[in-house]
Design brief:
Number of helices: 13
Distance between the termini: 45 Å
Largest sheet: 8 strands, parallel, barrel
CATH class of the largest domain: Alpha Beta
Bound molecules: (2S,3R,4R)-2,3,4,5-tetrahydroxy-N-oxo-pentanamide, cobalt (II) ion
Helix content: 25-40%
Strand content: 15-25%
CATH architecture of the largest domain: Alpha-Beta Barrel
């Protein structure tokens, strides 16, 4: 088999997605998700201008060789744009291989290690009654694990809180990227946040009881000592995890956090290679790996990263917000089903319009996802519908402290 075409499809059904479609001389096609929130066109160019020409004539079955070729031959290594592009190629080649084998992709990864994939949803509210309503809505939809984000008194707009109905009128689905030519500015005050958050978890535990797994995302906003303080303060509420407590480019910082709290830690949605985790995993400073399959070099690289983590009893918590397209979600689900050290899967439902562009066979039943049993990834791209929704500039917000200083977000 030979690769004869590699097309990059940029479309915006309610949000921007970049999709790679690889076509072979035998007519089998494969899809990869190359979406990088707010930097979509850079990955599209990287693929179209630099990677697609290299793929022509290659044997699509040689996945490892193609991965190593793209990683090593560019000379310049790592980085989110490069690794998102490599991931898209890798996932598309796995899709082709599994279709050629006539099997769902998870079978080629060793087969199912479980019957379903526990998913968590995103509940949020500006105050406690609104938060409780959001949690109840998620429970009604079948979620059995819930991420909890709330507004903080004294801060106008807090990331992760669905304060406004989205463009599609769906309040449920918080979409942090806004269709504005410039990133929106939000405000932040870490001390106000640290004072407020434990009372939110106390209220949620009081209302929903001790069993419901609860998660929280700190979005890189704390210093190590602040994160240690928060982890300790949240211990009575038994979190499933505290995510991205510090900007973890400084892996050593997690030693300090770890010394002070038994709240489980999850890190890594902005990471893109195993090297970003070297100290975190080897010193067992985290409990969950948060990388996206689509930003970390694809299934080939994620499998190696998670096998490394498994040696240290660290589990997966693969990134799954709406900026991971249904193609990227499907890739995550096949891996989740196959690996032994699965932890939990993030899941934000895509809008009906996005689901029209990406026809998917994965299911969500009673809190559990399953990738389905169609050959390959189980996702088809409707290019005609995709073409009706061209790219629109959209950016994540950012934040400043009260005195105007730009802060981590
Ligand atoms: O802010 O996906 O845990 N999930 C998150 C996400 C990220 C966005 C960034 O593109 O933090 O909502
Ligand atoms: Co996060």
């Amino acid at each position: 088999m030979k690769i004869v075409a590699a097309d990059i499809i940029v479309s915006s059904p309610d949000r921007n997605f970049v999709t790679l479609k690889i076509t072979t001389d035998e007519g089998i096609t494969g899809l990869g998700d190359a979406t990088l929130n707010g930097r979509e066109l850079s990955v599209a160019s990287y693929l179209r201008d630099h990677v697609a020409p290299l793929l022509m004539g290659r044997d699509p079955h040689r996945i490892e060789d193609t991965w190593q070729f793209l990683y090593r031959s560019a000379y310049w290594r790592r980085g989110p744009v490069t690794m998102a592009a490599i991931a898209a190629v890798d996932v598309a080649l796995w899709d082709i291989k599994a279709k050629a084998a006539g099997m769902p992709l998870y079978q080629l990864l060793g087969g199912a290690s479980r019957t379903g994939i526990m998913a968590y949803g995103h509940a949020s509210g500006r105050d406690i009654p609104e938060l409780f309503d959001s949690i109840r809505r998620h429970l009604d939809e079948g979620f059995r694990s819930i991420r909890v984000q709330t507004s903080v008194p004294g801060i106008n707009a807090v990331y992760g809180v669905a304060a406004q109905p989205s463009a599609t009128g769906q309040r449920y689905d918080y979409e942090p990227a806004q269709r504005t030519p410039l990133p929106a500015e939000e405000d932040w005050d870490t001390r106000a946040y640290l004072r407020h958050l434990p009372s939110v978890f106390e209220a949620v535990r009081g209302e929903f009881g001790p069993e419901l797994p609860l998660l929280h995302d700190g979005h890189h906003r704390m210093t190590p000592i602040q994160a240690a303080k928060l982890g300790k303060a949240l211990e009575p509420y038994d979190l499933f995890w505290l995510e991205d407590c510090t900007p973890a480019e400084n892996q050593e910082a997690l030693r300090l956090v770890r010394q002070h709290t038994t709240t489980p830690l999850a890190i890594g949605e902005v990471f893109n290679t195993v090297w970003d985790y070297q100290t975190l995993i080897r010193e067992q400073l985290i409990d969950y790996v948060r990388s996206a399959v689509t930003h970390t070099g694809g299934i080939t690289a994620m499998r190696k990263l998670l096998d490394f983590a498994a040696q240290y009893q660290i589990k997966s918590g693969i990134h799954g917000p709406t900026d991971i397209s249904p193609v990227g979600m499907a890739a995550a689900l096949h891996l989740d089903l196959a690996i032994h050290n699965f932890g939990i899967q993030e899941y934000m439902k895509h809008t009906p319009l996005a689901n029209e562009v990406f026809r998917q066979s994965f299911t969500f039943t009673d809190g559990y996802l399953h990738p389905g049993d169609q050959p390959g990834l189980g996702v088809e791209l409707d290019e005609e519908v995709a073409a009706r929704f061209p790219y629109e500039p959209a950016y994540l917000p950012f934040n400043r402290l009260k005195d105007g200083t730009i802060h981590d977000w």
